[in-house]
Amino acid sequence: MQFGLRRQVSATIPELKSVLSHPIPPPTAPPFPAECTPEPSLNLQLQILLQPIFQHSPYPSSYAPIFQFLTRHNFIKLGQQTHAQIILHGLRPNAFLAAKMVAMYASSGDLDSAAVVFDRTDNPSSLLYNSIVRAYTRHGFPEKTLEAYTRMHFLGLPGDNFTLPFVLKSCADLSRVCMGRCVHGQGLRVGLEGDFYVGASLIDMYVKCGAIGDAQKLFDKMVVRDVASWNALIAGYMKEGEIGVAEDLFGWMEDRNIVSWTAMISGYTQNGFAEQALALFDEMLQKGSEIKPNWVTIVSVLPACSHSGALERGRRIHDFANGIGLRSNSSVQTALAAMYAKCGSLIEAQRCFDMIAQKGKNLIAWNTMIMAYASHGCGIESVSIFEKMLKAGVQPDAVTFMGLLSGCSHSGLIDAGLKYFNDMSTIYSVEPRVEHYSCVVDLLGRAGQLVEAKELISQMPMLAGPSVWGALLAACRSYRNLEIAELAARRLFVLEPDNSGNYVILSNLYAEAGMWEEVKKLRLLLKCQGMKKSPGCSWIEINGKSHLFMGADTSHPQAKEIYKFLEALYEKIKIAGYIPDTTFVLHDISDEEKEYNLTTHSEKLAIAFGLLNTSPGVVLRVTKNLRICGDCHEASKFISKIYEREIIVRDLNRFHCFKDGYCSCGDYW
Asked: Which helix (H) or strand (E) holds 410?
């Protein structure tokens, strides 16, 4: 076997020797990153480095600078040939040389070869362990990093300021806070806690493991704090929802960098503070600002536009991204697609998705579009995107099926939805979670198959959570099935006792059935438990500014004008055939009072405001925090026809696009 190996690698020697008299070949092509064509001076440098290894008995140390040079310039093929010559000469790399070889193989992503070199080296050193630890960490193998570090510690080899940051990152990736504390202790014993990189890595580890108190204590002890430590702590407090503390830290920073600003913007967005995120982003765009947004900042701020339905703000950010050369950035285009979809513009979302090169369309990009079409009730399009994704060779995950099943549910694609649900584990090796069962219960429930939905819940391999019983309760509301609704509601009262919405749905069903005594009992129970019904509100963006309306709201400066307009509007849509559905007014009052109550719903106020303040033909985009009521849904269809407007309403569950008297949901919602 050794003879065969020698005969095989002997062919590489002429190639390697030819470097002494011929130019160096270009670097390896992708998948390894290619640098520019080497300059003539590089040929001379390598020729000088190669001279010693063609002596009669070269020393192993002669190869170390060669591997270092080849790694730096990405000449992987030559590195493999050099390794082959080492084998041919019967040399065994010492720890120093092996460290350079591991680094060379790791730089090309060939971790298997790196591991073989590492495992076959006698008397490993801290330098060799640093090379393999770095390789595993950078290529996303935190478990192997910790295994290597444990072996290193067992051998009595001390970690240094190159080892610990990678080990701590792996602890953070795996949420191994106990292991992180052990590493912290080892760092203390060798005096590394004061090192900038180690200190910042420790804070980052504690933050990502949810131990913000430990991170703060360490931060307070630091004599000199670099910007990375500040940034890590800011991100940690944002993650914990401690917005005020993060703001204080940001205000105290003397030397902010792009990461500082992005951490604040991302934190605001993730905590639902959309306006603050957008305001801080705008501050970065000011002429006097030394730090301008990069692609990460843009990806972080775009969800803020989605939260507030700020389509125009999103478009301006899109223009800015194009202006700084991010038109071909797949992450930015994916984030833009998600923003446009959530702001109600599927056409622009699809356009951004199409801008991504086929090779750049990763799983996140495909999932974004599947979810986009699903949220707009376009189940057929969701299925089409899914099939295209499979043809592109991208394998689905749990998120993919969430979007796919949701799309099938909103479009009434029962057979397709059930097929994909059954194929999840058998064909795609994705085990269904509670959320997927919730989608299927919703799928069956929307189709009126309440008994089948209830049976599916009883057959679940795990306990049904609030999302599952909530989907069943919502279906019971649509089909007015009080018996199953009571069953679902009682379960929900136990699972989420503080959610007033479940009490309200059951109370509404009792009210529709004229069971006012039961209504009183539930409302008394709500009062005794100190719960309040979440008030319905809607908002609309006009000229880049959001206007919020509550039910029966009279606080808006144009309130009188809005209500006067609504009176005339109601007369027009009644003439066109609209009949107020007073069953959606769940109070024991007169029919006249019920009809007036309907006119003051928040979505109608927002639509009226939009009609008053925009030019004919402008699309109205309204967002509601709850599910749109049936009467508002019916009225919006008439309004869209009479005023010749497209009205897009985004409610808690999906989008409704009203146009020419019809809704995109086909009244299946």
From this structure: helix 398-411
How far apart (Å, rounded) are the C-alpha atoms in residues 652 and 410? 13
**Claim: this prediction has a pTM higher than 0.70:** yes
Q: Classify residue 29 by its DSSP letter.
A: P
Structure tokens at 223: 């004599």
Crossing angle of helices 196-208 and 212-221, rounded to 10°:
160
Q: Which residues contact 53 (CB under 8 A, 6 or more apart)?
A: 62, 63, 66, 82, 85
CB-count burial class (<10 Å; 0-12, 13-18, 19+) for 400: buried
Peptide bond into 31 cis (omega under 30): yes
Distance CA 485, CA 502 (A): 10
What φ, ψ does residue 541 adopt, rounded to 5°?
-100, 125
Two tokens at 457? 């819940």
663 strand-pairing partners: 658
pLDDT at res. 32: 33
CA 325-328-330 angle, 5° bins: 125
Query: How far is Cα 541 from Cα 551, in angstroms, rounded to an integer?
Result: 18
* Amino acid symbol at 336: L
Indicate the DSSP class of residue 542.
E
Are 617 and 575 in contact by the 8 Å Cβ rule? The answer is no
Q: Which of 351, 304, 311 is nearest to 618 (CA)?
A: 311
DSSP 211: -
Range from 28-32, 252-256, 333-337 that averages highest in pLDDT: 333-337
Q: Are 87 and 16 in contact (CB under 8 A)?
A: no
DSSP-assigned beta bridge partners for residue 649: 622, 656
Residue 396 has φ and ψ, to the nearest 5°, of -75, 160
Beta carbons within 10 angstroms of residue 308's beta carbon: 21
Q: In this predicted model, what pLDDT tens digit does every residue of 54-66 receive, in sequence order? A: 666 667 777 888 8
The residues, any chain, with a CB within 8 Å of residue 636's CB and separated by 6 or more, are 603, 607, 628, 647, 649, 656, 658, 663
DSSP at 359? G
- Top pLDDT among 564 and 17 is at 564
Query: Environment class of residue 650 by beta-carbon count within 10 Å: exposed (0-12), middle (13-18) or buried (19+)?
Result: buried
- Using DSSP bridges, classify how beta strands 655-659 and 620-624 pair: parallel, antiparallel or unpaired: unpaired
Buried b (16+ CB within 10 A) or exposed e, 202-220: bbbbbbbbebbebbbebbe
Q: What is the largest CA-CA distance in the chain?
A: 107
Which two three-digit tokens encode residue 182? 């052990």
Instruction: Give yes or no for a contact between 372 and 393, defined as CB atoms under 8 angstroms apart.
Output: no
Distance in angstroms between the alpha carbons of the first and the last residue of the chain: 70
